[in-house]
Amino acid sequence: MMTTFQFSLIRVLKNPAIFFLLLLANQLFAQDISLDPVTVTSSLVEKRASQTGRNIAVIKGEYFQNLPVHSIDDLLRYVPGVEIQARGPMGSQSDIVLRGGTFQQVLIILDGLRLNDPNTGHFNAYIPISPSEIERIEVLKGASSAIYGSDAVGGVIHVISKTFAARLQSGNEGENADDIQKTSINGTLTAGEYGLKNANVGAFVQRDKLAVSGGFLSNNASGVQQRGIKGYFHNNTASVSLNYALSPSLNVAVRSAYDHRDFAAQNFYTALKSDTASEKVKTSWNQIKIGYKKEKTAITLDGGYKFVRDQYLFNPHSIANDSKSQLWQGLLTWQQTFTQSTNLITGLNYQNRNIASNDRGNHSLSQLAPFVSLVQNIGPNFTVTPSVRLDWRESIGSEVVPQINLSYKKDKWQVRGSAGKTIRDADFTERFNNYQKALVTGGNVGNPALKAEKSFSYEAGADWFLTSSNTNQLKISGTFFQRLQNDLIDYVATPYAQMPRKENLSPTGTFGLALNIAEVNTTGFELDFQSVNALSSNQKLIFNAGLTWLKSESSNLEPSFYVSSHAKFLGNFSAIYQISGFSISLNGLYKHRAERAASAIEANISKDYFLLNAKAEYAFLNRSLAVFVQADNAFDVQYSDLLGSKMPGRWVMGGLRFNFVK
Q1: DSSP readout, 129-166?
Q2: How confident is the model over 284-300, as pLDDT tens digits?
Q3: Residue 139 and residue 157: Cα distance in Å, rounded?
Q4: DSSP, residue by residue, 559-613
């Protein structure tokens, strides 16, 4: 009998577009970058990816301008191994999934501080930074709760900005120090079908000990006609940041951002015919980082405040849910380098999450967690990183969360492994959904008695580096992983008589009660390709691809909605070919998953689909100005990632791009 692996591989190879692009992996792209970059996400210490013992993908911020994408979740959608379950286009709403977890089991970090929303994980992809400010995005696949605590189950997505990552010159380096003078201004203006009008502009300026950046992203369209309403959206993000060296050993960085999304949300959360919802989500984010570094000691103090207001209107005849959530947090870390082979990192993390809602009520939860991590090199090739975190959560209790990462690299080969415990606390929606309404006639109801999800994860992998120069590189990575999970949280159909709280429930209603329902074991294998090659003096070909096989088994007879929605096989890629002033870029993915249907709204989840976006560009005036045409969903595929949330077909657009660098 044919295995799932064989079946999926045959389907991929029969698809000409995917097969052609995978063949390119032996020739690929040209740019002066490293496939073993310095990263910080795995242990908070700057280490080459090959020393972390983890499978880490790094995406440069400049890819946002070069690829056919419109929002940060668009960019992540084509990163090897990342599954984006989109409800709407161009940043309207997406769930981020790694290694078959639920959308709440991925931790989002911006410049060291967590962003996961206290209200619901559906808002985690609303990352409050304009794309022009992004230096790079590090995607760490797999467990990381020993460093980051709750939510880091499937993995971590860490957005690092140009300003916070800037190497500042304090002015006391001596006469031989070179002045740092950097200026970049860039922008893209796009117009297209369905009233599309997009803008993405930004600037970065550094003058020795000062770095400043800011940007603005706006995606707007009247939208494609849906069953009940048009799929309109008006999604806007503005951000500004500053980093200043007060002395050779002390610097301070600050960030402020505002994000506003107004979009059609029909059947985003239900499969009811009466659902013609619209939604507005407003986010403000403020952050400060104070860093001290002298000789072998580094101390940082981070503080952050996030405010989100969500207004959700089920249909014109309903009363809108109005929820305001806040996240206060502080993070103190101390890094000590004892020798070239030994680094110790310890820290203390504080969080306060609260919500005020006409639907969920008013609630607050505090959390305090010390952690420690040791990065130890043993000889020239072997690195071991044990970590442990003690997580205390108000009214919930404490959890000890250990993890160990191992890496051995010699010549062109690396072998790595990791094992550790992970946890995830329920959010306010899972605990208190529909608690405050006068009368609930049906739908999902929260449960304050939910326990934290717990799991044990382990992985083993290998990387092959084939590098002839800094512009001719190939890296192939393979990783086997397994997650053994207890107390998964999901909604279970429950009759009125069995509901633990009946105060505002209709006796004739049908309800879904949030419960810890199951043990879920997820097993998978990842195969990633990255390459850089100079084809000639004026030709570049950039390519990344990933293949992921997943199988989840549950002890519950009724399959979990969110676990069963992840792809059983995922193949995604991005490619950029450039010759002189002309370039063409492609994003694509193939997804094989379980079929589902909702006849009441004539919606279905197909067994599989293949999606391709294409962009052609011509640049002139020393590549400072360019014109482009773009087709999203070029093959006009009819598809949905989540039942009822139909995504647009082919969408054609064009525009101008400018880029000034000094």
Answers
A1: S-GGGEEEEEEEES--HHHH-TT-SSEEEEEEEHHHH-
A2: 999 999 999 999 999 99
A3: 5
A4: PPHHHHTS-SEEEEEEEEEEETTEEEEEEEEEEE---EEEGGGTEEE-SEEEEEE
Beta bridge partners of 409: 414
CB 546 within 8 A of CB 571: yes
Indicate the pLDDT class of residue 6, thresholds 50, 70 and 90: very low
For residues 211-222, average pLDDT = 96
Q: How many CB atoms lie within 10 A of CB 446?
A: 23
- Residue with the two structure tokens 């860490």: 158
Angle, vertex CA 111, rays to CA 587 and CA 117, nearest 5: 80
* CA 217 to chain CA centroid, nearest Å: 18
Contact 660, 624 (CB under 8 A): yes
Spatial CA neighbour of 126 closest among 217, 40, 206: 217
Quote the mean pLDDT of the chain: 88
d(CA 123, CA 327): 13
- Half-sphere exposure at residue 72, Cβ-oriented, CA atoms within 13 angstroms: 33
- 482 vs 176: CA distance, rounded Å: 53
pLDDT of 554 reads 81
User: Which of 279-292 are b and which e, b meaning 16 or more Cβ less than 10 Å from the residue's Cβ?
Assistant: bbbbbebebebbbe
* Radius of gyration of the chain from its Cα atoms, rounded to whole angstroms: 24
- Which structure tokens are listed for 193? 């079908």
**What residues contact 568, with CB distance under 8 A and at least 6 apart?**
4, 8, 549, 550, 551, 592, 593, 594
- For the stretch 61-73, pLDDT in tens is 888 889 999 999 9
DSSP codes of every residue in 355-379: EEETTTEEEEEEEEEEEEEEEEEET
**CA–CA separation, 361 and 375 (whole Å):** 44
Task: Please determine, for residue 51, whether its predicted confidence score (pLDDT) is greater than 80.
Answer: no
- Closest by CA position to 235, among listed 130, 319, 357: 130
CB 480 within 8 A of CB 525: yes
Say which residue the tokens 């880490």 belong to: 56
Rounded to 10°, the helix 4-14/16-23 angle is 90
Cα–Cα distance measured from residue 418 to residue 430, given in angstroms and rounded to the nearest whole number? 30
What φ, ψ does residue 276 adopt, rounded to 5°? -125, 50
Tokens 């997650």 map to which residue?
483
Q: What number of H helices and E strands is found in the chain?
A: 8, 34
- Give the per-residue pLDDT at 466: 84
